[in-house]
Amino acid sequence: MADLRGVKWWVPALGLVVTATAVTAGFAHTIEHQIESQATVALHKASLDVVAVDASYRSLTLTGPPNYSGLATRAVWAVRLVTSVVYLSNVEPTPEPSATPTPTVTPQPTPTITLSPSPSPTTPAEAVEAVLPEPQSVTFAVDSAELDSASLQALDTVATVMIAALEIDPTLRLSIAGHTDSVLSADYNQTLSEKRAASVRDYLVSKGVPADALVAVGYGESRPIATNETEAGRAANRRVDLNILED
């Protein structure tokens, strides 16, 4: 993708000149806010509310009791897009008994864990791809196109990042592919897969993603990712896959 810094657009309806630098800053702020919110939720679910979290783009700084460093770091490391985690202790260590008084020294917070496993995305498309759910994350009950709460949570993140990415690259398109297991007829399953894809598309549109940035298609039972001979395999095949469309 070309470097857009310094490029300007005239927006007649607003009478403003908008620079790519400003849009990029807004994109980074959106991702930073999303990461901090998800990290806070992850700490709450792990009963680690005593640990504070602060995000700087895709890096997290945690502050809390020293004995919680490992638990807290593992809890937030599951948040998508995070590239590094630093844990700071906010409790002074207990001094050892001493017969000779020693000057009191207030220790400064010291990072105990720093992880940096992967580089940051370099394009809006890569940022969206980083938050797309795994194939078995958006699944459905038998003969149903209704999204469950876990699927909605994953799609909320996709919508947030997709909206921000489109501000920088309006040409982005997201493929929404519906699938079924092999129960019932092929014709029926084709229609059901299209309904599942439409269900995801309609939800993303309700969250603010432009409809023309979404391409929904159904594949029926033709593209299984697991065997249809077991219930677990059939459940995996009742899904919707999301991918960035290549030019």
Care to give the gist of this entry?
This protein is of the alpha/beta class. Helix content is 37%, strand content 18%.
Description:
The chain folds into 2 domains: 101 residues, no CATH class; 121 residues, OmpA-like domain (60s Ribosomal Protein L30, Chain: A, 2-Layer Sandwich). The chain contains 6 helices and 9 strands; from the N terminus they run ββαββαββααβαβαβ. α1 packs across α2, α3 packs antiparallel against α4 and α4 packs across α5. With 247 residues, the chain is α/β, with parallel strands linked by helices. It is 37% helix and 18% strand. Strands 3-4-5-6 form a 4-stranded mixed sheet. The longest helix has 26 residues.
